[in-house]
Amino acid sequence: MTRKKFLPKAMFAMLGVALLVYAQAPQFSPAPGSPVVVGEGSGIIVLADVNQDGKLDLITQHLQQRVVTVQLGDGAGRFAPAPGGPIKLTYSPGDIKLGDVNGDSMLDLAVTGGERDALDIFFGDGNGRFNRAPGSPFLVSASTEFNTGMQLVDINEDGKLDIVTTSNQRNSFGALLGDGRGGFAPGSMTTFPAGHGRYVFAFGDLDGDGHLDAVTANSGGDFLSESSAVVILRGDGKGGFKIFTETPVPPGARWLALGDLNGDQRPDLAINHNGNQLSILLNQGGGKFTPGSTYDVGAGAFAVTIADVNQDKRNDLIVASVDSVTVLLNGNNGFAPAPGSPFHAGPGAYHLAIGDVNRDGKMDIAASSFEGKAVTVLVGR
User: Fold this and answer.
1) How many CA atoms lie within 13 A of 257 on its CB side?
2) Who contacts 17 (Cβ-Cβ below 8 Å, separation ≥6)?
């Protein structure tokens, strides 16, 4: 007769507590080098490898200080200032983007701002330094309006990065067509219906025809009572766009992100609204969208990003929420807060960036601090 072995009840209880603690472990925790001192008033953040060492670096825009800072990553979550110091500007930078615009396989920097519709290009040297490109600044149009939003995309499908810019003062965006060598020429201007408030835009193939389309969300004004809408503009692959659909959304639409949220391989929309609301529009195919669920992020909702942060092959939602970062995990019954969410960040966490800063194969988060001096870096588990 074989004697059965039993674990003591106390051991079962201890095992249950351990499993519960593990299940509730925070999805993110501060990186070893967090917070990273970058200077006062950090806004838009980019994570990219600018010195070609295989480790993500941290680039931040500082509106009031008129600089762009570059911090080089060590691959473990720590960052140190790049050689040459911050990039000093004579104007307040509105937006920053990185991409190889001159075909040398090194990331370059585009910066909008100033009191005219123009932008600067800085060529990267592959070591973390940036130098102003010949011909910079490039004029988008004759407008004297302050330029803020920007995207680097190939809108005319010639294999060369173009630059699309917009401002809060007009309902249009303008294109600068790249020649692949760092030069740009004015392209077409595209208008769309918009209200008087802030609007943002993004690009993606929304109707499945292989061409980039554009989407913009307009807040309608400064008040939550005013109407908002999402406008889809269908691209022709040659740099032209025409209005396709206009979908009403809850008031106060402010930020948007594109990504597949229901696993059907079509890009959906996540939209943050003034206040604490986040809404979803689901892509039904052909560029048509229908309203999905809405969520309360529990704090002021600003920049939103879509990424799979827990490696379950489903995209999640990451929201910059004033002094914290809110993470909503995509599950069988919609989105729910990740363990530990919201995660503490510095004051003025209005922007964020996603990337694997410690090279462990998991998504990490960097959050700005407009009212502070340091960027919060959160590493995923």
Assistant:
1) 24
2) none
Amino acid at 222: D
Distance, in Å, from the CA atom of 279 to the CA atom of 294, rounded to the nearest integer, reads 4
Cα–Cα dist 197/202, whole Å: 17
Q: Which pLDDT tens digit goes with each residue over 90-133?
A: 999 989 999 999 999 999 999 998 666 789 999 999 999 999 99
260-299: burial string, b at 16+ Cβ within 10 Å, e else: ebeeeebbbbbbbbbbbbbbbbbbeeebebeebeebebeb
Report how far residue 221's alpha carbon sits from residue 228's, in angstroms, rounded to the nearest whole number.
8
Residue range 308-359, pLDDT digits in tens: 999 999 999 999 999 999 999 999 989 999 999 999 999 999 999 999 999 9
55 exposed, middle or buried (CB, 10 Å; 0-12, 13-18, 19+)?
Answer: middle
CA distance 10 to 288: 57
What confidence score (pLDDT) does residue 217 get?
A: 82
On whether the CB atoms of residues 273 and 303 are closer than 8 A, the answer is no
Are the CB atoms for 305 and 354 separated by under 8 Å? yes
* Largest Cα span, the chain: 94
Task: Measure CA 60 to chain center.
Answer: 13
Q: How confident is the model at residue 274 (pLDDT cuts 50, 70, 90)?
A: confident
Instruction: Report the alpha-carbon angle 111-117-121, nearest 5.
Output: 30
**How many Cβ atoms from other residues are within 10 Å of residue 300's Cβ?**
18
d(CA 303, CA 352): 7
For residue 162, which amino acid is it? D
